[in-house]
Design goal:
Length: 198
C-alpha cells in the first residue's frame, strides 16, 4: 500500500516507541543482507533486534539523541534514529570537527512507501532538529551496494569520509573454496557461450 507522503505525519518518538520498531528494523536488516551479501555473515532476526534495540535504548539515554517516527494512520511506516555524541578520537585524530557530532544510525522507509518523498522529509526533519541543537557535523554509514540510499545522501551534500575493509573469520576458507569451485558452479565466461547448470 502506498500513500501520499503528505498524509504521513513525522513526529518525535521516545524510548517507549522502540518496541514498535522491530518489524521495520528487520526490514532494514533484510535489505542489508540483500544488497550487501558479500559484506559478511548476517545474524538471525532475533539476535539482530536484541542488539539493535539495546543500542537504541543506550543512544536515546543521551537527551541530545532523537528518534523521528513517520506515521500513516497510526502505523509507523518509517523512522530515523540519530545519535548525538561528543566527537571521539577516531574523528579528532584526523579531522577538525566540532565538539559534538551526529550520526544517522538508522533511516528506513517501509518498502511500499518508498520513492514518494518520505525519506527526504525525514532527512529534512533531521536537519531541522540538528540545526536547532547547533550540530553541524553529521555522519552516516552505508553498506556497500546500498546505492539508492547513497545517491539520496550525496544529493544532500554527504561525501565519502572513510572506507572500512574487513576480513572476517572464515574469509580465507571462503576464498580457498572459491578458488577450487565445484565444476557445476563455474560461472559463465566470455571465451565460449555456456549455460550455468542449476
Ligand atoms: C533510503 C530510503 C530511506 C529513502 O526513502 P524514500 O522515501 O524512498 O526517499 P525519497 O522518496 O525521499 O527519495 C527517493 C530517493 O531515495 C533513494 N532510494 C533508495 N532506495 C530506494 C527505493 N527502494 N525506492 C525509491 N527510492 C530509493 C533514491 O536515491 C531515490 O532517489 P532517485 O529517485 O534519484 O533514485 C528508503 O528507500 C529506504 O528505507 N531504503 C532501505 C533502507 C536504507 O537503505 N536505509 C538507509 C540506510 S542508512
Amino acid at each position: 500500500m502506498s500513500a501520499d507522503s503528505r498524509l504521513i505525519a513525522i513526529d518525535h518518538g521516545s524510548v517507549d516507541d522502540i518496541a514498535a520498531l522491530r518489524e521495520l528494523w528487520l526490514e532494514l536488516h533484510h535489505h542489508h543482507a540483500q544488497v550487501a551479501p558479500q559484506s559478511g555473515e548476517f545474524v538471525d532476526d532475533a539476535s539482530s533486534w536484541r542488539v539493535r534495540s539495546s543500542s537504541y535504548r543506550e543512544w536515546l539515554a543521551d537527551p541530545r539523541s532523537f528518534l523521528l517516527l513517520a506515521r500513516f494512520e497510526e502505523r509507523v511506516v518509517g523512522y530515523a534514529l540519530v545519535r548525538v555524541m561528543d566527537a571521539g578520537p577516531e574523528l579528532t585524530d584526523s579531522w577538525r570537527v566540532p565538539a559534538a557530532v551526529a550520526e544517522i544510525e538508522t533511516m528506513l522507509v517501509s518498502a511500499p512507501f518508498r520513492g514518494a518523498g518520505l525519506g527526504t522529509r525525514l532527512l529534512d526533519a533531521i536537519d531541522a532538529e540538528l540545526e536547532r541543537q547547533g550540530i553541524t557535523e553529521v555522519i552516516v554509514g552505508l553498506m556497500p551496494g546500498n546505492d539508492g540510499a547513497q545517491r539520496l545522501y550525496e544529493r544532500r551534500g554527504f561525501r565519502r569520509r572513510w572506507l572500512v575493509l574487513a576480513r572476517g573469520e572464515g574469509e580465507l576458507a571462503r576464498t580457498a573454496r572459491a578458488m577450487q569451485p565445484n565444476p557445476a558452479d563455474l560461472p559463465c565466461v566470455l571465451l565460449r557461450p555456456c549455460r550455468r547448470r542449476d
